[in-house]
Amino acid sequence: MYVGIDLAAKEENETGICILDGDIEVQLVFKNHEIIKSVKKASVAAMDAPLTESEAAFRPAERELMSNFGPMLPLNTPGMKTLSEEGKTDQKSARRKM
Questions:
Q1: What are phi and psi of 62, to 5 degrees?
Q2: Which residue, 42, 60, 67, 77, has most beta carbons within 10 Å?
Q3: The pTM is what?
Q4: What is the b/e burial string over 3-41, where b = at least 16 CB atoms within 10 angstroms of the residue's CB?
Q5: Whole-angstrom Cα distance, residue 47 to residue 9?
Q6: Cα gap 50→62, rounded to integer Å
Q7: Per residue in 79-90, pLDDT tens?
Q8: What confidence tens digit (pLDDT) does each residue in 30-59 have?
């Protein structure tokens, strides 16, 4: 089973989850424990959230991606920093519960 997570920066905003396990299932969840429940049985889970922080707006990898695919949100905005913190929290929680 594969799980993709489009993480919201705050629990009051919805997080999108796509589960591929023969069929495709899409979920919208709000709480971190709902995210953890969705990934518990996954063989692979991928989260669309920065798991590192940067004072620079973009790292070399983002610059290269933008040169080929267009603009993206800078990493050093308050919203991206909040998203990074949420992603790291969820990553740690998932590792403890697996």
A1: -65, -40
A2: 42
A3: 0.67
A4: bbbebbbeeeeebebebeeeeeeebebeebeebbebbee
A5: 12
A6: 11
A7: 888 888 887 877
A8: 988 888 888 888 999 888 877 777 778 888
